[in-house]
């Protein structure tokens, strides 16, 4: 399994959908970014602001990250 080191901070957890098909989200704010090792297989997409990952139980997590988009892109491609 391949991993990538990322510096992650605030994140939005998508827990699923309600009866009106609206996302059920939880916004998590942290005081500081911290380094984490993430399995590349969990990364679903990367934008200039967020890394979208999945979680074991079907949740999705949008993580803010500190690295430059181009550096993350080069590591993943």
Question: Would you mind describing this structure in some detail?
Answer:
It is built from 1 helix and 6 strands, in the order ββββββα. The chain is globular and about 40 Å long. Strands 1, 2, 3, 4, 5 and 6 form a 6-stranded antiparallel beta sheet that branches. The protein has one domain (3-76). The two termini are 15 Å apart. Strand 1 and strand 2 (23-28) form a beta hairpin. With 77 residues, it is mainly beta. It is 10% helix and 55% strand.
Q: In summary, what is this structure?
A:
The protein has one helix spanning 69-76; strands spanning 3-17, 23-28, 34-39, 43-46, 50-54, 60-65. The protein is mostly beta strands and 77 residues long. The chain starts with a strand and ends with a helix.
Itemize the secondary structure elements and their pairings:
Layout: E1 3-17, E2 23-28, E3 34-39, E4 43-46, E5 50-54, E6 60-65, H1 69-76
Antiparallel strand pairs: 1-2, 1-3, 1-6, 4-5, 5-6
Keywords:
77 residues; 6 strands; mainly beta; 1 helix
Helix content: 10-25%
What fraction strand? over 45%
Low-confidence stretches: none
- What is the strand tally? 6
Largest sheet, strands/sense/barrel? 6 strands, antiparallel
Q: Rg to the nearest angstrom?
A: 13 Å
| Number of alpha- plus pi-helical segments | 1
Quaternary: single chain
- Sum up the overall morphology in one term: globular
Averaging pLDDT over every residue, what do you get?
96
- Secondary structure class reads mainly beta
Whole-Å distance between the termini? 15 Å
Listing every helix as H and every strand as E from the N terminus to the C terminus, the arrangement reads EEEEEEH
- How many individual domains? 1
């Amino acid at each position: 399994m391949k991993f990538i080191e990322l510096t992650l901070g605030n994140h939005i957890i998508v827990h699923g959908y309600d009866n009106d098909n609206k996302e059920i989200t939880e916004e998590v704010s942290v005081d500081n970014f911290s380094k984490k090792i993430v399995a590349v297989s969990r990364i679903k997409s990367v934008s200039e602001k967020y890394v979208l990952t999945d979680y074991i139980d079907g949740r999705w997590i949008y993580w803010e990250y500190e690295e430059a988009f181009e550096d993350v892109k080069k590591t993943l491609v």
